[in-house]
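In the current project phase, work has continued on tokenised descriptions of protein folds. One protein thus recorded appears below exactly as we store it.

——
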Amino acid sequence: MPICSRDRGRRAGAADVQRIHSILVLLIVQYSAYLSLHFASVNIPVGGLLTISSPDGSQFHEYTNVTQTNFYAEFIDGDSAFITYTPPRSSLIDSLLANDAPNAFLIDKFAHGFPKADLDSQVEAICGKDDSQSAVCLKTSDAPKYQKAQAVARLRINGRSLCTGWLFGSEGHLITN
């Protein structure tokens, strides 16, 4: 079931506006290594604030004055995340809460990762002879290669596997292993 920022079945009148403080949702996917929300749409008006955070507040991502569709938010480590929406406090709030106003956000799905132990137990294979060595082995013997071998990204693919990424060229292309 999608999570929306307001109930489309009710129209908030002027008296309701004074009572609106924020909407708080807690998402828990037991034993997950991380959570990443997928937004079908985000339409946060000026003065509004959407926050995705870890329960202890040590990690958080904030969205304000943004309109965007079909994207995954940055992940939160752990098996739970708070989603908090605080609407703007202004005379525009009546129009924002009108029945024809867009939702401030619509979460249609989420990705979650498996515990590290599960990822570590996945079988990996190399075709042919494995003559690879750790980049750190080249740190002193071939410093230029070592410097260029520094990863710039760690990617999670479909919540199931991890890979490392490097920038390739000067146009922002990313290659992975």
User: Anything to note?
Assistant: Confidence is low (pLDDT under 50) at residues 1-20. The chain has four helices and twelve strands.
